[in-house]
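Q: Got one fold?
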Amino acid sequence: DNWRPRRIRTVVLSAQHDEGLTHARIRDELLEKVVRPALAGFAAGEDGETVHHINPSGSFVRGGPHGDAGLTGRKIIVDTYGGFGRHGGGAFSGKDATKVDRSGAYAARWAAKNLVASGAVSRCEVQLAYAIGVAEPVQVWVDSFGTAASGLGDGELSRAVREVFDFRPESIIRDLGLAAPVFAPTAAFGHFGREPGTVEEGGREIRLFGWERINRVDELRQAPGV
């Protein structure tokens, strides 16, 4: 309320560890020695319904440059909104569509464009948050910046977006055609604000910039609460 958190719904923490440690021990020690001390001073603390995703992908023995390296982290802002819109910090270039840094950002853009086109808002930001190893996003939130149509709040808009769009990575890849060779045109002139289109390659039709398509307007208008 008034930009102050009311409660902590989800805690996500991944920590590299020595080989041979059980997941139960890692979880218990991180909760006891890291999570709970870190959150103890917040008025909006944990409650009985707080969800803890502690090393949700399982073993995390290999890390650092041995486990995650490549041509990533380039052109984060120029690839997106040029500083006009907020960015979660994950780069696109060098990552395939299984990485939500890329596919999740595309899906959020897709949802936001359709939400504006539906007339429910004149401006919005769709926020998605994921935990590694968990397909469903741990958060889906719409910030309408006070531009929502009369009677609509950000909570209703968020529920409508979650109802209409499937934000699991596998579903995003399917719905936006990201398994096809669609990334080369994004190497220049940015990923957003482009004209969607199709090209023929290898005897099949490939959709480019699928996240720019406005094709879920009717579903959003019919969603409960909108």
